[in-house]
Amino acid sequence: MANPMPPSISPESPSVGHPAAARSHHDLGVTLAQAGRRAEALEHLREACRIAPESLDFINNLGAVCEDEGLLEEAIGHYQTAVRLGPHLAIPHFNLGDILRKAGRVEEALPALEQATRLAPDLPEAWESLAEAFLKHNQPDNAAIALHGHGRALLAAGRNVEAIAALERSRLLHPLLPGVIHDHGKALFNLGCLEHAMLLLHRAADVAGRMSTAEEAGEVRSLALRHLAVFVPGSPVDDNSSIYKTRKKYIEMVTAGESRAKPNLPRVRAPGPWRIGYLSSFFHAPQWMRPVWGLINRHDRDRFEVHLVSASPRGEIDAAYGRHPRDRIHDISGLSNMEAAASIAAAGIDLLVDLNGYSDPQRLAIHALRPAPRQVTWFNMYGTSGMDCFDAIVGDATVAPEAEDAFYSEPVVRLPGSYLAFAPATGPDDSPVPAIAPEPPSAHGPLTLGCLASSYKLTNVTLAAWAEILARSPHARLLIRNAGLDREDHRAFLKARLARLGVAPERIECVGSASHREFLETYGRIDLALDPFPYSGGTTTSEALWQGVPVITFTGDRWASRTSASLLRAAGLGEFVASDRRGSIDLAVRLATSTDTPAMLRSFRAGIRARLLTSAACDTAGLTRTMEDLYLRLLASH
Fold first, then answer.
1. How far apart are CA 474 and CA 506, in angstroms?
2. Phi and psi at residue 72, to the nearest 5°
3. Which of 34, 252, 438, 494 has its CA 20 to 30 A from that of 311?
4. pLDDT at 287
């Protein structure tokens, strides 16, 4: 049945409180329509509307069945009544406009469809029908704008493959709409086509920049530059130099003309611990923040007073945080950057640690205001911030070798081991993780390569490397799992990309989201994990290792491509780190085709957790000591 209303539209719906007999006829009519018995359905729906003529959902559903039966004029009449009963609702306007368009009454259809898009900008079908109406009315520019609305609504709904199709149609009609170009790039990014996405985002920024008089163009340029700054570390078409330039350009834009807080003057401190503030928009995120909680939970509270500056939704904090009675939590989720900076300064925080990086770029402006005498960025930057307000960016010798210092606007501090040492269990409320499956899948079947990284990391160069590994390992298969693969069209899109590289679809298994425990249980079906590049794993790498699966990676050309290498070397597993891409492909092929691999994997699974716990990869106590020493050095130099 086409275009039905939900059974109850809203608490104010006229359908509420109608006679029981009308509801019985309506529900039976809907059931019959769904079974394809529309002639019988019409009798019951008409009777329901006779009994309750002011019931919006009854009238709308009668119109929908009439439409399916080809009774267009009757359907139009019912939809007009639905619009009268629910003028504030988008669906009746859409249904009326859509059927008028189909009936060739385009002049009448346009205002109804435009009203539907105003009332529900996130309703893709309304935008699509509006675009078709504009095309029938010979208005290609307006059709391009409507197709942009269609693509934007699909993008917001996570329907990226459909969004790309709509946005491509829009660009064919009007190639120079910067918002369309930007959104096309964003949809491609979501699916892992980062090479093409970056080109489109640069194009969007350029086109919008040349439309200086249009307010919307300025907003698109700002958004494009922000996304370029966020995506650039994982872009195969970029390098350290362009990462630095891209982020500097973004920071110059967001800080231009912004009044800065007065520099923090030296102050005489009363005796007591130093106040260390940790600023994050993701304190609520489970699992991802394990290195952070490993540090915060082990802080020496006699020397340091811990302040969590939370921009998380409603200030929520993950259960892995081991709450301490002397810690302070500041909820800045509802504050502007200026207000948040004032709050931090008022709290007397001595050293502020940024944990966001570019995962929440809008909050970087807080640090530009210098609300604390000393500022450090750690954990989530994966390259330079492009800002001059940080006294240190914290990494290690693997992710940020000294030879690359020129590509950082901050002084680089290198910790021993890995800068992301993680604690497998960090709080009293941690849920236990699954036990390691003692037998690898290859012990009783084909060897399974796997990757549980997000879709946006599955770049063309990554898939090309995996395709070569599969071509040279004819008995291996590939399992890919992430939340972006919940949709069948997204799975088909990924398989089509691999098919173009020569990988038969039957050798690939694509799986969508799950509970975290089920997600981790997936590693029981994987022999060897393949690291994506140039944006390597962090949380996925530590979780794979903890679940008994080696991760094959290589030392790339930038920070973001070396995180897995940092963790593996800290764990004493450097044999799984190749020196370059070619070496990682050869290593994966050797392990995938060796008859010794199942025995090696069995031994790996048996001892990996004990090995990790005694390695630098899980030495959160050591990480805490070195970070505290860094804080004291910076504070002493103030």
1. 12
2. -65, -45
3. 252
4. 80
Assigned architecture for domain 441-618 = 3-Layer(aba) Sandwich (3.40)
| Residues 97 and 107: beta-carbon distance below 8 Å | no
**Cα 12 to the chain's mean position, in Å?**
36
pLDDT digits (tens, 9 = 90+) for 255-267: 875 555 554 544 5
Per-residue tokens: 519: 């997600």
Distance separating alpha carbons of residues 28 and 201, to the nearest angstrom = 51
Topology annotation, domain 20-180+199-217: 1.25.40
Q: How many CB atoms lie within 10 A of CB 636?
A: 7
The pLDDT value recorded for residue 269 is 63
Dump the DSSP string for 3-60: SPPPS---TT-TTTT--HHHHHHHHHHHHHHHTT-HHHHHHHHHHHHHH-TT-HHHHH
Q: Map residue 329 onto helix, strand or coil.
A: strand
* Tens of pLDDT, residues 11-47: 334 444 468 889 999 999 999 999 999 899 999 999 9
Q: What CATH number belongs to 274-415? A: 3.40.50.11380
CA separation for the pair 483, 512 (Å, rounded): 5
Q: Tens digits of per-residue pLDDT, 285-319? A: 888 888 999 999 999 999 999 999 999 877 789 88
**Cα–Cα distance measured from residue 450 to residue 609, given in angstroms and rounded to the nearest whole number:** 20
CB 166 within 8 A of CB 143: no
Q: Which helix (H) or strand (E) holds 306?
A: strand 304-310
What stretches of 137-193 show up as alpha helix (H) in DSSP? 140-156, 160-173, 178-190
Going by the DSSP 8-state scheme, the letter that residue 596 receives in this structure is: T
Instruction: Categorize the per-residue pLDDT at 158 as very low, low, confident or very high, splitting at 50, 70 and 90.
Output: very high
